[in-house]
Specification:
alpha/beta, binds 1,3,4-trihydroxy-5-OXO-cyclohexanecarboxylic acid
């Protein structure tokens, strides 16, 4: 299985560090990307890191990943709670998918408690701050390793 992993980020995550820091913290998305690349190196994963505010762009990256990746880490942000289209794209993938939320969505408004993406995810990480991305990559590396045994 490919050791390329797509790390996909949905709308408003470009404002990480500036947007509601009491909820999302002060680390920027560039900091998260640097962390993912460092952890990716340690785990021998090749990281493709993207963010978009546009649903169609995220879907296009999922289609690209479907052809060349061994897994996806995705923080779909608000699309988590709304997007059947992103769910359908993920359902077309045959590799493991880990869903990440920086905040503990279950402690927040009721509309954040439902996730379309969770129905396809191998695992879900929420409320671990930006460290959740590193934990997701560790899990994905394990799943990729196990699939090769
Ligand atoms: C989020 C949680 C979502 O409910 C929210 O819409 C986001 C970020 C998180 O990382 O905690 O934009 O996915």
């Amino acid at each position: 299985m490919s050791r390329t992993v797509y790390v996909l980020n949905g709308p408003n995550l470009n404002l990480l560090g500036k947007r509601q820091p009491a909820i999302y913290g002060y680390e920027t998305l560039a900091d998260v990307e640097a962390d993912c690349r460092r952890v990716g190196d340690e785990l021998k994963l090749e990281i493709e890191f993207y963010q978009s505010n546009a649903e169609h762009q995220i879907i296009d990256w999922i289609h690209e990943a479907r052809e060349r990746a061994g897994g996806i880490v995705i923080n779909p942000a608000a699309f988590t709670h709304t997007s059947v289209a992103i769910l359908d794209a993920l359902n077309a993938c045959e590799f493991p998918i880990i869903e990440v939320h920086i905040s503990n969505v279950h402690k927040r408004e009721a509309f954040r408690h439902h996730s379309y993406v969770s129905t396809v995810a191998s695992g879900v990480i929420a409320g671990f701050g930006t460290q959740g991305y590193q934990l997701a990559l560790q899990r994905l590396a394990r799943l990729i390793d196990e699939s090769q045994q």
